[in-house]
Amino acid sequence: MPRLDQRLKLVARQIRARCHADIGSDHGHLLKALLAAGRIERGIAIENKRQPWANSQATLRGLPADVRFGEGLQPLRPGEADSASICGMGGRSIERILGEAPERIPERLVLQPNKHAEQLRRWAFAAGYHLQEELRTAGRRRFDVLVFVRGDGHPDPVYDSLDREAALVFGPWHLRRWETWFVQQLQQQQRYLATLGGRDAVAGQRLAILDRLLAAREKHPQKNFAQTPPRRYFEK
Ligand SMILES: C[S@@+](CC[C@H](N)C(=O)[O-])C[C@H]1O[C@@H](n2cnc3c(N)ncnc32)[C@H](O)[C@@H]1O
Q: How far apart are CA 47 and CA 50, in angstroms?
């Protein structure tokens, strides 16, 4: 049985589906582990490079899984999978894959960008997908795992009553939970940007958001955002 690293373990824990597609399956380990754990009934591995495609085939041989060669979501028929994952790529590549085949995106998505998670939050907000959960792995290199579900036509309620721009940049669930590691990370970024010579407009904007967030927190340290979840989110 393939042993998943912490990053893929966290991804796997967010997946439970009848049919799950893993785009950029590489070695095929994620699908094999999901099948072995009974978290999915059927898997579809998609690869656009020969060697990883062959590796996925070898890993998944004899299991209820298809291994398809092709670009992103193109080898998937609309409605065929009820969930998909795209992991281990940059947020911009993931956004491109989603943008190229919007009609093939399943109801539920588990995305693990190596960077630019903000890009995916912005994509989802515009595309009508709701951020159901966002997590970060522990350890020296932290990876984001974002879980999206197709929305009901209303704006994503997780952003209700939050500073929208700050939430898109740093994550609405992280802002609501305001955990120690998250605050420390914001403070670290604030210190870094404040001392950065020749800040460009993006860095300047980010610093302004950090100043705003951390000042508000200092003013109301007792406010626990986790106790004020967006109501509509839980009514569904
Ligand atoms: C860095 S690896 C990550 C593998 C695995 N998903 C993980 O997280 O460990 C990225 C994999 O995605 C594949 N890939 C990249 N772009 C792709 C695309 N547009 N369509 C299908 N596969 C793609 C690459 O060939 C590579 O095997």
A: 8
The 10s digit of each residue's pLDDT in 179-204 is 999 999 999 999 999 998 888 999 99
Structure tokens at 165: 């721009």
Quote the CA–CA distance of 215 and 224 in Å, as a whole number. Answer: 15
Query: Where are the alpha helices (H) located in 101-138, listed in sequence order?
Result: 117-127
Residue spans in the chain of domains classed CATH 3.40.50.150: 6-153
What mean pLDDT, rounded, does the chain reach? 93
**Phi first, then psi: what are they for 104, rounded to 5°?**
-105, 0
Dihedral sign (CA 116, 112, 114, 86): negative
Residue 113 near ligand 1, beta carbon < 6 Å:
no
Report the percent of the chain where pLDDT is more than 90: 86
Q: Is the pTM of this model over 0.85?
A: yes
Query: In CATH, what class is 6-153?
Result: alpha beta
CA-5 nearest atom, ligand 1:
9
pLDDT tens, position by position, 156-168: 999 999 999 999 9
**Going by DSSP bridges, is the β-strand pair 144-150/129-136 parallel, antiparallel, or unpaired?**
antiparallel
For residue 220, the model assigns a pLDDT of: 74
Q: Is 75 in the pocket of ligand 1 (CB under 6 A)?
A: no
Residue nearest atom 16 of ligand 1, based on CA coordinates? 24
Q: How many helices (H) and strands (E) does the chain have?
A: 10, 7
Nearest-angstrom CA–CA distance, 154 and 161: 15
